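In response to the reviewer comment on reproducibility (Comment 2.3), we provide here a single inverse folding case reported in full, input and output, so that an independent group could reproduce the run without further information from us. The structure tokens appear first.
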């Protein structure tokens, strides 16, 4: 079993390109560590946060230097030199802020934002009363998304569970538009039946599918719903900063 230090070292090796994603998953599985995808996601987010913090500290330092310079008395003899110095500080501030904006934009494509929010759904997240074993459930639990889709398409009667598993399978196999159709169907089912089965999960993964297909504004609507609902299952995953980042920096991958 890995301790915290060994786990951090493993994640650092993955982030630096010394280990593949599959190698990391295998090592985590050997140590009986569940939710490996979530751990990788959190580590990536932590690294990103540190990088942002360092850049913001640089901008703040330039800004403070600029303000301190304004407070200093300027003598007539040195007025021209002081103006030049102030202009240089202002230029540094503009450059630093511009660099920050470029950094945000470069790291805020729809695909990158999708990856930042994505966490693979597993059967361990299911409710106890929804674990009835079927071929479709077994296929999904084994991570066989293609088989899950095939079984779903040959099942005559499907409910929210089957539709949700199929939607996730479509999302994981690169067909987000088909996933969106099923997520919309689940929300419609719950609205008609005044139910909530898989609604929280659907809200979150529907927003990811919308983001992946470039439908940023629709994704924001769902993510805001999650962010403002403290009781929502995925509330902790949607921060105010992430919403602002999607709104102002999100852009097409093309």
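Designed residues, in position order:
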């Amino acid at each position: 079993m890995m301790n915290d230090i060994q786990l951090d070292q493993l994640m650092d090796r993955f982030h630096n390109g010394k280990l593949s994603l599959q190698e990391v998953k295998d090592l985590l599985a050997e140590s009986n560590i569940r939710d490996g995808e979530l751990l990788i996601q959190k580590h990536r987010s932590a690294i990103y946060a540190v990088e942002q913090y360092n850049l913001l500290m640089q901008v703040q330092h330039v800004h403070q230097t600029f303000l301190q310079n304004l407070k200093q008395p300027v003598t007539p003899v040195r007025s021209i030199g002081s103006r030049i110095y102030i202009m240089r500080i202002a230029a540094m501030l503009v450059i630093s802020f511009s660099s920050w904006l470029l950094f945000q934009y470069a790291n805020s494509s729809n695909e990158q934002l999708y990856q930042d929010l994505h966490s693979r759904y597993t059967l361990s997240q299911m409710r106890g009363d929804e674990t009835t074993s079927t071929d479709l459930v077994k296929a999904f639990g084994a991570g066989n998304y293609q088989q899950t889709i095939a079984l779903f398409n040959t099942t005559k009667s499907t409910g929210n569970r089957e539709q949700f598993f199929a939607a996730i399978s479509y999302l994981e196999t690169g067909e987000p538009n088909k996933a969106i159709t099923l997520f919309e169907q689940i929300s419609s089912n719950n609205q008609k039946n005044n139910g909530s089965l898989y609604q929280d999960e659907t809200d979150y993964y529907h927003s990811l599918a919308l983001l992946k297909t470039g439908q940023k504004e629709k994704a924001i609507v769902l993510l805001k719903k999650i962010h403002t609902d403290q009781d929502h299952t995925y509330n902790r995953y949607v921060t105010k900063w992430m919403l602002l980042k999607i709104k102002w920096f999100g852009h097409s991958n093309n």
